[in-house]
Amino acid sequence: VVAAEHLTRLYGEGQAQVAALRDVEVAFQPGTFSAVMGPSGSGKSTLMHLLAGLDRPTSGTVTIDGVELNGLNDKKLTLLRRQKVGFVFQFFNLLPMLTAEENITLPLRIAGERVDEASLRQLLEAVGLADRKEHRPAELSGGQQQRVAIARALITRPAVIFADEPTGNLDSQSSREVLDMLRRAVDDLGQTIVMVTHDAQAAAVADRIVFLEDGRIVRDEGHLTA
Amino acid sequence: VVAAEHLTRLYGEGQAQVAALRDVEVAFQPGTFSAVMGPSGSGKSTLMHLLAGLDRPTSGTVTIDGVELNGLNDKKLTLLRRQKVGFVFQFFNLLPMLTAEENITLPLRIAGERVDEASLRQLLEAVGLADRKEHRPAELSGGQQQRVAIARALITRPAVIFADEPTGNLDSQSSREVLDMLRRAVDDLGQTIVMVTHDAQAAAVADRIVFLEDGRIVRDEGHLTA
Ligand SMILES: Nc1ncnc2c1ncn2[C@@H]1O[C@H](COP(=O)(O)OP(=O)(O)OP(=O)(O)O)[C@@H](O)[C@H]1O
Ligand SMILES: Nc1ncnc2c1ncn2[C@@H]1O[C@H](COP(=O)(O)OP(=O)(O)OP(=O)(O)O)[C@@H](O)[C@H]1O
Ligand SMILES: [Mg+2]
Ligand SMILES: [Mg+2]
Q: What is the C-alpha to C-alpha distance for residues B218 and B38, in angstroms, rounded to an integer?
């Protein structure tokens, strides 16, 4: 459902130039759960942002559901992303002036879609925030904010969800619950998930683990279909 | 070196009131390394902010080196904090317009102290950021930003360091290096560290583990002196 070829992302020039990603080639099949691991600074977030169309590569291509992103102008790219992509950012990127509930339903309201109260309530329960939905991010703990970000990515049931360290701020209990939820989204709803994680337990839930090092893929194992 | 008595922190009123901390009593001895663990939302960050004088309790007292914080006006409290406390925030709180190096040396420059180039270089090496010191936070990966925040807390060699999830965004290699560094600060420099973590491996480095649940301390084991 999402594929990259010769993907390269460079920052800066000359001496100070940083190669965040170098000639990366990878494809993720529909209905699979993949983990992306690697040392701090190895290019994981950069890869995720490029695959989700949130950033443009220095060279190479990204294709989502057969559509090559390079060929899209910003407007069309935004539309594609809105329809097909869910993203859990490493630092949540919640809107501080909105409540947890408003942050979660924002993608639906932007798309002009109706909010199904029942499934919203179910989602809030699933992430353990039913009693916090009126709170703004500043009134929530780190892990609670992270769970809001996760619910927000799930609510539109996108074709592919990119989750950048979704359990980084969660205790083991909440982590398990979130990972179970993501696993179910793949197994029951046929969603595709690409998850960056440093947590071996989180990776264990995935069908496949892609290892990055210094901007390159150095290992890619699993390939088990869901 | 830092102690709390009958520490309570409430948010909001009536029905919506949240008791982040309820009547907490705890003391941390000089030269010890303590971990604070507990479920997401259990009050860990709140406890840390109150102990570090970054927030005021609803009731109860905090004492740092014998000085009771309630008796201090904001100006005096800021001075005490600057002299005695180092803090690694759960979300780093770096200044976006400053480079990594400038963020790290900021506490020294604010205190009007000279920056010792040699120990600065050593610290940058220790956190693996020597080649990134000219980058601004937006040009750094999540884990790199976290390491800047850690170096910033260490540079003034404060009496007590509060670290809120210092390894949350780090791969296992960088985590180990950071934890070794914190352990050495306690063993070699007699510093006191109170570290919030969800990571059992990180907690294993500590002398003592304090468990929070729903705003209360439910377990407190170790008490081994360094
Ligand atoms: N300004 C606020 N208004 C209302 N409730 C708040 C506010 N700040 C924190 N809380 C609540 O206080 C409780 C404790 O928050 P705290 O950030 O201390 O938890 P934590 O243990 O650090 O959680 P995490 O592991 O998720 O970071 C949470 O339930 C949180 O929602
Ligand atoms: N705007 C930028 N300018 C310069 N270098 C950058 C910029 N953004 C990212 N980098 C560099 O690109 C490399 C990859 O960054 P990236 O955020 O993808 O790493 P990561 O694997 O997600 O790390 P972490 O596990 O610490 O989150 C890092 O070395 C980082 O410093
Ligand atoms: Mg990252
Ligand atoms: Mg916290």
A: 9
Residue B10 at interface with chain A, using a CB cutoff of 8 Å = no
Residue B225 has pLDDT above 50, yes or no: no
Closest CA to A206 of A174, A183, A178: A183
Q: How many whole angstroms from B181 Cα to the centroid of ligand 3? A: 22
| Residue B226 banded pLDDT, cuts 50, 70, 90 | very low
Structure-block tokens of residue B10: 């409430």
Percent of chain B residues topping a pLDDT of 70: 98
Residues 6+ apart with CB under 8 A from A31: A186, A190, A191, A192, A225, A226
Query: Chain B: nearest CA to A154, how far in angstroms?
Result: 20
Here the tokens at position A140 are 């929530």
Instruction: Please provide residue B150's backbone torsions phi and psi, each rounded to the nearest 5 degrees.
Output: -70, -45
Per-residue pLDDT tens over the stretch A10-58: 999 988 899 999 999 999 999 999 999 999 999 999 999 999 999 999 9
Structural contact between residues A64 and A80, judged by C-beta atoms closer than 8 angstroms: yes
Give B136's contacts (C-beta < 8 A, 6+ positions apart). Answer: B96, B97, B98, B99, B100
